[in-house]
Amino acid sequence: MKTKRLNITLNKEVADILSEIARERKEKKSHIIEKALLYYFDYLDITIAEERIEKLKKGKTKAIPAEKVYKELGI
Predict the structure, then answer these.
(1) Which residue ranges make up each domain of the chain?
(2) How far apart are CA 26 and CA 10, in angstroms?
(3) Pairwise CA distance, residues 50 & 48, whole Å
(4) Closest listed residue to residue 14, CA positions, set 35, 32, 27, 38
(5) CA 75 to CA 70: how far, in whole Å?
(6) Distance CA 18, CA 27 (A)
(7) How far apart are the first and last CA of the chain?
(8) In Å, what is the CA distance from 74 to each residue of 20, 28, 64, 69, 70?
(9) Structural element, H or E, at residue 69
(10) What is the pLDDT of residues 23-71, one digit of tens each?
(11) CA angle 47, 39, 13 (to 5 degrees)
(12) Which residues contact residue 22 at a Cβ distance below 8 angstroms, ignoring those fewer than 6 apart?
């Protein structure tokens, strides 16, 4: 897997907790951050899906029929 170097800024309390956990788990901080972000992205996927369902129920958005999507994708 390719990696990309990022420079991030965390508040001191979060950075200290991250350092403590990394030291105790004997893991790189970047690995802990990566796993945490993946968990958060899963949470966001669920949250976004729930918001979209609510908009659909309230008539604020419309669903696109699967047949139309398949046709546009050439499936």
Answers:
(1) 12-73
(2) 20
(3) 5
(4) 32
(5) 5
(6) 10
(7) 30
(8) 52, 44, 15, 8, 6
(9) helix 66-73
(10) 999 999 999 999 999 999 999 999 999 999 999 999 999 999 999 999 9
(11) 105
(12) 28, 29, 32
- SS3 sequence of 2-63: CCCCCCCCCCHHHHHHHHHHHHHHCCCHHHHHHHHHHHHHHHHHHHHHHHHHHHHHCCCCCC
Q: Which residue has the tokens 């604020």?
A: 60
Residue whose structure tokens are 């956990």? 21
Give the integer Cα–Cα distance in Å for 33 and 51.
26
